[in-house]
Fold this protein.
Amino acid sequence: MPKAIIFDLDGTLADTAADLAGAMNYALKKFGQPTHSVEACKQMIGDGLKMFAQRALGKDSRHLWDGVLSLMKARYRDKCFECSRLYDGISEVVSKLRQQGIRLAVLTNKDQDDARRIVEHFFGADTFEYVVGVVGESGVQPDIAGTMKIVESMKLAREDFLIIGDGAQDIRTGAAAGIRAVGVNWGFRGREELAEAGADMTIDRPVEILGLLA
C-alpha cells in the first residue's frame, strides 16, 4: 500500500485547459499570430510554458517565442481562475486519501508560483505537503529533481510512492525515479499516449485512485 501520492496538476487534479489556452491566444493575437482551439492547446500543454509557447508559434516564429511567452504568463496570472475547475470527484478523493493517512504532494511543469496559487485556491494551504513546479527553466519533467526533492523531504522510500498524471512526462518521470506511475484517462492527453509512455496502469475515474491503496 502506498504511503504517499504525487499528483500532477493540469489535466489530473484540475481542468485548466481553457484558461491556459485563453492566455496563450490572447498573447498570440497581440503579436498578430494565429490562435488555437482549446483541444489543440491540450496537445501542446504539459512540458512547461516555454514549450507551450514554442508549439503554439512554431519554429518559423522563433523570434516571437520570448515575447509571446512573457505576455501569456502575465495574462494567465490575471485570468487563471476564470474557467478552471477540479475534475468531478477529485475533491472527495483527496479528502478520503488524507483521512486514510496518505501523504500528498503536487509535482507539475506549471510555473511554481502559478501552481501554488491554483492548489491553494482549490484545496487550501494545508492539503498537500509540497507543491513543486518549475522555477525559471529548471526542473521540467521528466527531470526527476522535483520528484526526488519530495521523496527526500518526506523521508520515505521510492516504493512508498505513486505518481499520478495524465501525460507522458508524468509516466516517464515515474520510470526515471523508480516510482510506480499511474495514468489518468480523463486528462489532456489520453489512454494511447499513457500506454506508449509505459504507464503501469491507467484509470478512468478519480474514485479509482482509492482502489490503488489496497
Residues 5 and 148 are 13 Å apart (CA to CA). The domain at 4-15+85-213 is CATH 3.40.50.1000 (Rossmann fold). The beta strands are 4-7, 14-15, 85-86, 103-111, 130-134, 161-165, 180-184, 201-203. The longest strand covers residues 103-111.
